[in-house]
Amino acid sequence: MSSDFVARIIGMIVFGVFAGYLGGTWGENVFPDPTIVYTVVLTLSGVLVGLVLTPYLTTRPMRTMRSLLGRLEAQTLVAGLVGLIVGLVIAALLAFPLSLLPAPFGEILPFIGVLIVSYFGVAVFVMRQNDIFSIFRDRLPRKKSADGSDDDFTGRKILVDTSVIIDGRIADIARTGFLSGSLLIPRFVLNELQYIADSADGLRRQRGRRGMEVLAQLQDEPGVPVQISDIDVEGTREVDDKLVILARQLKSPVLTNDYNLNRIAELQGVPVLNINELANSVKAVLLPGELIKVDIIQEGKESGQGVGYLDDGTMVVVEGGVEHLSKEIYVNVTKVLQTAAGRMIFARPEDRS
């Protein structure tokens, strides 16, 4: 039985009784006899109004309020509540001297003061919430790691996106210890991974199953804390939207390879850990004039060009390299170009003369 249905039944009874009472009163004092006619008519009208309007006055505003509160961060809610309490205390102290003013100021100003001071209390505490919480955070004792040293990231949670699990490199990166904190995998991410693994498309099914294997490897690693949580976000069905809202609530970064999720999270002020950006950052830095060894494996787009790849996957375009096809030669770097897809290196064969 839905809450809307229950609210409609209660509204029918309440509005019907109230309208019937008004009908009986008006029938005796305003309208001529018979009184019973006005009572019945207004009662039926009240029942109809209660049946139609009650959900819009009760359950639906409450549902909207719950959805809005669910999107707010816990820290923001606490800061707003503390600000409201402080504002009410200050307003109570000001109410007595304001009440001594001559009428009508002594009757109106205390109420207006409560509204204004409470509003400013909530606004100030919400705007400065990070500064206020940092004061208490600095006074708390730091947690100790296994070797007894201070560990500032012991309680840090990193939200993991489905694309990272399918990618597979997360297992190797986490094994190295560069990720400080525990990996938090919400249940809705697992559901999406299972949906991909059960797909009718063979390639998607293979990717989903590989993600399941990577997740099992992460859980078997003793140095990589992995936590699977049933935490969810109401009011939205998209996994990306849930991750962004959850990251804002938990003050946690999102680990992803998804370009669109990366952009959406950055626009909303959510920190993002992108493995593709990490891979591009750790590639070897080459400058024009340096000598490298590359295997020319195919022709380039332009006439006479040859294309090879470094061990980290960086493309090397060699001018005149088509003459050395299927050979490993030394080339001089002439230009390094950074693109959205990665880094490209332009070079020419070394002059051995």
Give your account of this protein's structure.
The chain has 353 residues and is α/β, with parallel strands linked by helices. The chain folds into 4 domains: 3-64, no CATH class; 72-133, no CATH class; 157-280, Rossmann fold, CATH 3.40.50.1010; 291-349, OB fold (Dihydrolipoamide Acetyltransferase, E2P), CATH 2.40.50. 55% of the residues lie in helices and 16% in strands. α1 (3-29) packs antiparallel against α2, α4 packs antiparallel against α5 and α9 (187-197) packs across α10 (202-220). It is elongated.
Order of helices and strands: HHHHHHEHHEHHEHEHEHEEEEE
* Class inferred from helices and paired strands: alpha/beta
Instruction: Give the biggest sheet.
Output: 5 strands, parallel
- Helix share bin: 55-70%
CATH architecture of the largest domain: 3-Layer(aba) Sandwich
In CATH, the homologous superfamily of the largest domain goes by the name 5'-nuclease
**First and last CA, distance:** 89 Å
**Secondary structure tally, helices:** 13
The domain tally reads 4
**Total number of strands:** 10
Shape: elongated
The first-level CATH class of the largest domain is given as: Alpha Beta
Strand order of the largest sheet: 3-2-1-4-5
What average pLDDT do the residues reach? 81
Rg, rounded, reads: 33 Å
Low-confidence stretches: 144-154
Please state roughly what percent of the residues sit in beta strands, choosing from under 5%, 5-15%, 15-25%, 25-35%, 35-45% or over 45%. 15-25%
CATH topology (fold) name of the largest domain: Rossmann fold
